[in-house]
Structures are given as structure tokens and as C-alpha cells.
Design goal:
With about 150 residues, this protein is mainly alpha-helical. It has two domains: about 1-55; about 65-145, Orthogonal Bundle (Arc Repressor Mutant, subunit A). Helices cover about 70% and strands about 5% of the residues. It contains six helices and two strands, in the order H-H-E-E-H-H-H-H. The protein has helices at about 1-40, 50-55, 80-90, 90-105, 110-115, 120-145; strands at about 65-70, 75-80. A two-stranded antiparallel sheet has the order 1-2. Helix 3 (about 80-90) crosses helix 6 and helix 5 (about 110-115) packs across helix 6 (about 120-145). The longest helix has about 40 residues, at about 1-40.
Length: about 150
């Protein structure tokens, strides 16, 4: 009885050994296949020419010239410095209306609800703000032409 038990144990050990070797062989094949794929499809930066390196870089478009306004929990970035100055020159309520209307695509009714105003007041703020901003920007253009 002792002998068959040890034969069974040896058989199981050999089966386990074979399964482990097959698994390792499969993993090695996968690894070599992966390395071959990477060598075929990937290029190290150190292997690129200067012309190739110049063609893949990206210039960050976030400059310090951008003006950021915080309105009712929204961060609104204005990229045009002249427009940002024109918006900055408005009163606080007019500034909020313009930014929410044109940069956040909110309707007058939505803005009125958020600012606790009447919709017609929001409309008048927006209309008057555009007039003021237009005047300011035209004055700036006239100064630049002189």
C-alpha cells in the first residue's frame, strides 16, 4: 500500500512539473512576442533624428496672458487680452452676465435664476455690456491706429 501511494505522489509531482514547464514556456513565448512587437512598432527618443524630434513636440497654449474669471463657481478663461480687459472694466453683475452668457452658453432665464434677478434685467445687462465693451475696444483700436 505504501508503494502505490508513493507512485501516485510521484505521478502527481511529475504532472505538476510538466504543467509548470508548459506555463513557463507559454509565458516566455508571450514575452518574446511582446518584445518583438515593441521593437517593430516603437522607437526610442534617442534614436530619432532632430527633424523627427522637432515634428513631435507640442507648444503649450496656456499662457500667462490668459485671464481667468471666477463666476458663480465656474472658472472661465478668456484668451484674448483686449477682450479680457473689456470684460474686467464692466461692473460685477454685467461681467457675470457676459461671462455666463457667452462663455458658458447659458440662457438669460438660467442666468437670472442663478443670480436671483429678473430675466429682463439680465437681458438689459447683457445688451448694455456689449455696448460698453464695443466702445472700449473701438477706442483701443483708434489709439493703436494713431
Amino acid at each position: 500500500m505504501g508503494k502505490s501511494s508513493s507512485n501516485d505522489e510521484l505521478t502527481i509531482r511529475n504532472q505538476f512539473d510538466r504543467i509548470c514547464k508548459l506555463a513557463l514556456k507559454g509565458e516566455a513565448a508571450d514575452y518574446y512576442r511582446h518584445i518583438a512587437y515593441r521593437q517593430k512598432h516603437e522607437v526610442l527618443f534617442s534614436e530619432l533624428s532632430q527633424k523627427e524630434l522637432d515634428s513631435i513636440f507640442v507648444v503649450d497654449k496656456h499662457t500667462v496672458e490668459n485671464k481667468c474669471f471666477r463666476v458663480l463657481g465656474y472658472d472661465i478663461e478668456v484668451k484674448d487680452i483686449l477682450l479680457a480687459e473689456a470684460i474686467q472694466s464692466l461692473s460685477e453683475n454685467k461681467r457675470k452676465v457676459v461671462l455666463l452668457s457667452y462663455f458658458m452658453d447659458m440662457s438669460d432665464a438660467d442666468i437670472a435664476r442663478m443670480m436671483n434677478l429678473v430675466r429682463s434685467t439680465v437681458h438689459e445687462h447683457r445688451k448694455r455690456s456689449l455696448e460698453l465693451m464695443k466702445e472700449m475696444m473701438e477706442e483701443y483700436q483708434n489709439e493703436q491706429e494713431k
